[in-house]
From TrEMBL:
Pfam families: DUF2269 (PF10027)
Domain of life: Bacteria
Keyword Transmembrane attached: yes
Lineage of producing organism: Bacteria, Bacillati, Bacillota, Bacilli, Bacillales
Keywords for this protein: Membrane, Transmembrane, Transmembrane helix
InterPro entries listed in its UniProt record: DUF2269_transmembrane
Organism (species): Sporosarcina soli
Protein name according to UniProt: DUF2269 family protein
TM region(s), chain numbering: 6-31, 51-73, 79-101, 122-141
Length: 147
C-alpha cells in the first residue's frame, strides 16, 4: 500500500511542477503582444496573465504540499543540502511571484506610468521566475549533496 501512495504523490508532485513552470513560457508571447495592443486587447492580455499567474501559484501550493509529503514518506532527511536549498529558493520564488507580478500588474493602469517600462519589467519578472523554478527543478531532480 505504501509504495502505491508514494508513487501517487510522486506523480502529483511532477504534474504540479509542470503546471507551475509550463504556463510561464506561454506568458512570453502574450507580454510581447502587449506592446502594440489597443485598450480592449490589452485588458484581455492582462486577464490572461493574471489567470496564468494564479494557476501557477496554486500549482506551487500543490508542489509544496506533495513535496512535504514525499519528504515525510521518503528516505531523505530534512537536513539534506538539496532540501534546504530547495526551500530557500522556493521561499524566494514565492516572495518574487507575489511582489514581481502583482505589483507590476497594478502599476500598469496608473497615471503617468510608461507602459513599455512596465512590459519590460513584466518580461524580466517572468524570466527571473522561470529561472528560479528551473533551479528548484534541478535541485529536486539532481538532489546534490553540497554539504
Amino acid at each position: 500500500m505504501m509504495p502505491a501512495v508514494y508513487g501517487l504523490f510522486v506523480f502529483l508532485h511532477v504534474v504540479s511542477a509542470v503546471i507551475a513552470i509550463g504556463p510561464l513560457f506561454l506568458l512570453l508571447p502574450i507580454i510581447r503582444r502587449l506592446r502594440g495592443a489597443d485598450s480592449q486587447a490589452e485588458e484581455a492580455y492582462l486577464t490572461v496573465i493574471r489567470v496564468t499567474i494564479r494557476g501557477v501559484m496554486h500549482a506551487g501550493h500543490a508542489l509544496v504540499i506533495t513535496g512535504v509529503l514525499l519528504l515525510i514518506l521518503g528516505p531523505w532527511p530534512w537536513h539534506a543540502s538539496w532540501v534546504i536549498l530547495t526551500m530557500i529558493v522556493l521561499l524566494l520564488s514565492a516572495v518574487y511571484l507575489s511582489r514581481g507580478f502583482t505589483q507590476v500588474l497594478r502599476k500598469f493602469h496608473e497615471l503617468g506610468t510608461n507602459k513599455n517600462d512596465i512590459i519590460h519589467r513584466l518580461s524580466r519578472t517572468t524570466w527571473t521566475y522561470i529561472g528560479l523554478m528551473l533551479i528548484i527543478l534541478w535541485l529536486m531532480v539532481q538532489k546534490p549533496m553540497i554539504w
